[in-house]
C-alpha cells in the first residue's frame, strides 16, 4: 500500500518544493514576475513560495484564481487523477513506491541564468555547476540532477 502523503513530501523535497515541476510544465515560469500560461495580453500567473513548508504554488489569475501546488497542477495539465500524478512524479524523480522500485535515472535540466531555482538556498549535498558556452549569447546554468541530489 502506498502512503500518498509521505510520497507527496518526498516529491516536494526532490523537486525543490515543487518548483522543478512547475518549470517542467511551464518553461516560461518566473518566480519573480508574473508570466503567461496562454496567449493573453497581460501575464496573469504567478509562483509563490510558502514561508512555512517551502512548497511552491501557482495562481492563474486569468483562469480559476485558485492556488495549486505542483502536483495538482501536474495532474490537471496531464489530465490525471491526483494519485496517478503522485505515482508518475515519483517515478520521474526516482522515488521508489510499491509500483516502482527502479533506481533513479539521471536527468538534465537547463534554466536561463535568471530563472535558476533557489540558487541561494541549496540543500545539503547539492552542488550547482555553471557553464558558459562561448557559442551562445546567453549564459546558461546547467543543473545535473541524479535522483534528488544535484551534482
Write a structural description.
- It contains 4 helices and 7 strands.
- Helix 2 (19-25) runs parallel beside helix 3 (70-78) and helix 3 packs across helix 4.
- It has helices spanning 4-14, 19-25, 70-78, 82-92; strands spanning 45-49, 56-60, 67-69, 106-112, 129-131, 140-146, 149-150.
- The model is unreliable at 129-151 (pLDDT under 50).
- It is globular.
- Helices cover 25% and strands 21% of the residues.
- The chain is α+β, with helices and mostly antiparallel strands and 151 residues long.
- The protein has one domain (4-150).
- Strands 4, 5, 6 and 7 form a 4-stranded antiparallel beta sheet that branches. It has a 3-stranded antiparallel beta sheet with strand order 1-2-3.
Per DSSP, the total helix count is 4
Number of domains: 1
Shape: globular
Strand content: 15-25%
Radius of gyration, CA atoms, in whole angstroms: 16 Å
**Unreliable stretches:** 129-151
Characterize the quaternary organization of these chains: single chain
The separation of the N and C termini measures 32 Å
The helix-and-strand class reads alpha+beta
What is the H/E order? HHEEEHHEEEE
In terms of topology, how is this protein built?
Layout: H1 4-14, H2 19-25, E1 45-49, E2 56-60, E3 67-69, H3 70-78, H4 82-92, E4 106-112, E5 129-131, E6 140-146, E7 149-150
Antiparallel strand pairs: 1-2, 2-3, 4-6, 5-6, 6-7
Amino acid at each position: 500500500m502506498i502512503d500518498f502523503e509521505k510520497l507527496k513530501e518526498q516529491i516536494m523535497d526532490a523537486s525543490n518544493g515543487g518548483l522543478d515541476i512547475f518549470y517542467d510544465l511551464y518553461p516560461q515560469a518566473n518566480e519573480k514576475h508574473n508570466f503567461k500560461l496562454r496567449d493573453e495580453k497581460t501575464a496573469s500567473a504567478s509562483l509563490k513560495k510558502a514561508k512555512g513548508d517551502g512548497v511552491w504554488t501557482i495562481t492563474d489569475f486569468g483562469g480559476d484564481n485558485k492556488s495549486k501546488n505542483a502536483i495538482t497542477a501536474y495532474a490537471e495539465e496531464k489530465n490525471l487523477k491526483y494519485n496517478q500524478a503522485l505515482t508518475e512524479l515519483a517515478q520521474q524523480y526516482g522515488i521508489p513506491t510499491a509500483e516502482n522500485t527502479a533506481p533513479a535515472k539521471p536527468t538534465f535540466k537547463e534554466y536561463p541564468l535568471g530563472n535558476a531555482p533557489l540558487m541561494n538556498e541549496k540543500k545539503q549535498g547539492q552542488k550547482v555547476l555553471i557553464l558558459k558556452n562561448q557559442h551562445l549569447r546567453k549564459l546558461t546554468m546547467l543543473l545535473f540532477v541524479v535522483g534528488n541530489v544535484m551534482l
